[in-house]
Amino acid sequence: MRPSTRLGVAMFAPALLYITALIGLPLALAFLYSVGDVTVGSVGWHFVGLRNFESVLQSPSFRRALLNSFVFTVATQVIVIVCANVLALALEAPFRGRGVVRFLVLLPWVAPISLGAIGWKWILDSIYSVINWTLVHLHLVKPFDAPMWLGDPVLAMASVVLVHSWRMIPFSTVILLAGLTSIPREIPEAAAVDGAGFWRTHFTITLPMMAPIINVAVLFGVIFTFTDMTVVYILTRGGPYDTTQVLPSLAFFTGILGSDLAEGAAISVFLVPILVAIALLMLRVAHRAEVV
């Protein structure tokens, strides 16, 4: 083997080992558990075929979690992309203190999500909520009729969507800001000379040129959101009555806290084809945008 080949193998091996140990092995175990009868504390494994998947499909909690996962992902991404576009346009223009503002915008992304979510849990608390305190003192709601942000099904889902959007907006803003700065200045300047206003330039020139970048931001956002359970776990733990339960949190509650590893693994495996289909669709759209 030539020295250059050995060097290539040596540099590639850590990445291959990392992917195999932290991604490949857990994924293979999840598939193995999903067709077995493994529970926490069991010492054997027996093949049960698709029985776990049949049980999961008949569960109302799973069907509710599947619907919630799509609602949670779509609503979050709509809010994130709109807000990230606005922030990217605002932060692209030079102004005094732009570096500080960019740091503050990035803060929710770099701060530990558990810290931010616990802060939001206090803000949305049914008794100590600062939002309710403000609404009561502005006489917009009655003291004993304040909104139960995490106790009402609709408000609870809206709360987890908004908190997760607050977490994801900085990441998408950075991606879109990079896309905006890559557009040659001559193009919007030529459009301005031809009489195009801000909105016409933005919707007919800027957004079409940024379509591949937006697709990348949406792809990462969808994957991060569809597989994340941190906000749901800290704020509502899937409640009230499983109305904010999503597939990752349901798999965790069933497999880890409920000790049914096989059924928890079966729920997790449902995420794989959905995410693969979404990734292929987004990459196909991005490829078409690049070709055009």
UniProtKB/TrEMBL annotation:
Domain ABC transmembrane type-1: 66-282
InterPro entries, A to Z: MetI-like, MetI-like_sf
Record-linked Pfam families: BPD_transp_1
Keyword Transit peptide carried by entry: no
SUPFAM superfamilies hit by this protein: MetI-like
Topology relative to the membrane: Multi-pass membrane protein
GO cellular component: plasma membrane
Stretches that traverse the bilayer: 12-35, 70-91, 103-123, 154-178, 213-235, 265-286
Superkingdom of origin: Bacteria
Biological process annotations from GO: transmembrane transport
PROSITE patterns: ABC_TM1
Compartment(s): Cell membrane
Keywords annotated in UniProt: Cell membrane, Membrane, Transmembrane, Transmembrane helix, Transport
Protein family according to the UniProt entry: Belongs to the binding-protein-dependent transport system permease family.
Name of the molecule in the record: ABC transporter permease
Organism name: Anaeromyxobacter diazotrophicus
